[in-house]
Amino acid sequence: MIIFFGTSSRSAKFLDLATQRGLKIDLVVSEPAKPIGRKQILTENPVVTAAKKMKIPFLTSIFELQNPSSGFQLNFFKDTLGLILDFNKIIPREIINLFSKGIINLHFSKLPQNRGPAPVQKTILNGDKEAWITYYLINEKIDQGMIISQLSIPLDFTENTDSLYEKLIEKAAQETEKIIGDYLAKKVVLSPQIGEPTMTKKLTTENCWINWEKNPREIDRLIRAAFPEPGAWTEIKLFPDRQPATKKRLKILKAHLENDKLILDLVQLEGKSPVAWKQFLQGYPGSEIIKEKKI
């Protein structure tokens, strides 16, 4: 049997697509409902919602796997495989040891490159020509297990983090059933990770400020990597003829390159909804992006 671990909307998307393509998931492990938003409304985890829709049994804590009252005993895991996508929690050794077939993680890079929580953002920031999926057996160390398989997809340099995740999840959903089948049938040879490892960190608001002294291609990559969150940003003078001029933060959500020139497409002024750049200029005529280097 296969137990799936996931917590995000991306996990839920993969679960839906992979099961549609024939992958049989027997149990889902996710997280309990949490208060969300300004009103702190208790909201069900998207993976739990997906499991309910597909009528797959679920747990909302990994430690329920060790709880006798949950009905799970050691012999339950005799022929059990774990599968992870975007679980966002480190699974302790005592849980890993329950799985006789191990636990496979799907990591979106060519390990050992881009270990850590933000491989998709890093792929875009690097300007890589390909994005990768690595299937590997987890251990207690982050992204350091033995490799089962690695797949790649070509990039066209227009992807943002959101759209690249979609492409990778679609590819993973197509391939996972076969890869798991080959692994369980012992048709694959596990291999160690070879090469110099690199680590990733999630982009934050602080490191998404646009340095306009960089070339347009680098700025374009930052904008795409930072979408949808946290968003690449700059500062703008809204009414430059007024004294003092109004200065606000402006997110550059989408842009594109034309003849190596950066063309803005979608922006969001702080406190406002996203609008097209042309529409923004109509609402704030004469606005000037502040391109001086931050001190």
Detail the topology: elements first, then pairings.
Blueprint: E1 2-5, H1 9-20, E2 27-29, E3 34-36, E4 41-43, H2 46-53, E5 58-59, E6 81-84, H3 93-96, E7 103-107, H4 119-126, E8 130-137, E9 147-154, H5 161-184, H6 216-225, E10 232-237, E11 247-258, E12 261-269, E13 275-276, H7 277-283, E14 288-290
Parallel strand pairs: 1-2, 1-6, 2-5, 6-7
Antiparallel strand pairs: 3-4, 7-8, 8-9, 10-11, 10-14, 11-12, 12-13
Helix pairs in contact: 1-2, 1-5, 4-6
- Cross-sheet strand order for the largest sheet: 5-2-1-6-7-8-9
Overall strand count:
14
Strand content: 15-25%
Structural class from helices and strands?
Answer: alpha/beta
Tertiary shape: elongated
Explain how this protein is built.
With 295 residues, the protein is of the alpha/beta class. The protein has two domains: 2-184, Rossmann fold (3-Layer(aba) Sandwich), CATH 3.40.50.12230; 206-290, Formyl transferase, C-terminal domain (Methionyl-tRNA Fmet Formyltransferase, Chain A, domain 2, Roll), CATH 3.10.25.10. Helix content is 25%, strand content 24%. The chain has seven helices and 14 strands. The protein has helices at residues 9-20, 46-53, 93-96, 119-126, 161-184, 216-225, 277-283; strands spanning 2-5, 27-29, 34-36, 41-43, 58-59, 81-84, 103-107, 130-137, 147-154, 232-237, 247-258, 261-269, 275-276, 288-290. A seven-stranded mixed sheet has the order 5-2-1-6-7-8-9. A five-stranded antiparallel sheet has the order 13-12-11-10-14. Strands 3-4 form a two-stranded antiparallel ribbon. A hairpin with a 4-residue loop joins strand 3 (34-36) and strand 4. Helix 1 packs parallel to helix 2, helix 1 (9-20) crosses helix 5 and helix 4 packs antiparallel against helix 6. The longest helix has 24 residues, at 161-184. It is elongated and about 75 Å long. The protein starts with a strand and ends in a 5-residue tail after the last strand. The mean pLDDT is 93.
